[in-house]
Amino acid sequence: MKKPLLFAQELVKNTVKEGEIVVDATCGNGHDTVFLAQCVGAKGHVYAFDIQKEAIISTEKRIKSAGVQERVTLKNVSHAKREFWPQEPLAAVMFNLGYLPGGDHAIATKAESTVAALQIAINSLKQGGIITLVVYTGHPGGKEEYQAVRDFCTALPQQDFTVLEYQFINQINYPPLLLAVKRL
Question: What is the DSSP letter of 70?
């Protein structure tokens, strides 16, 4: 069985084609950004968001090291601001919720902005596109954020979307879980 993050990547890799437009809604240290840039190839594009300048700098270093910087646009703004999202239909949106690994744990994603960004992602997702949300619940506000995101996903109409929840239930210390949304 795969860890939730690796399963999220598998789902995205099986969905995204070269030349498509995707979003890393929480770029953090840039791992998902590089992964997405490799998925879309030289003709595709990744838009990557983070509110922390430290995350943008880390991601910039990682995409340059991977040689994919020409296909990535970094946005040092909240993913909840619609005006910064691409106008084109999106093949995939990846969220990695919680705090920046190695960063200030007091700065973490919040239910309100995550649900707002998720609504933007849903409205932007093309037919057959996917949204993945790797959720960490062990930080202050993490359980509330998970519940808000889960409630949002549960309410999506089944004739338009399928929603998956994937988690290990016998592990201690709040293991991450995955929510995945596919537009039919």
Answer: G
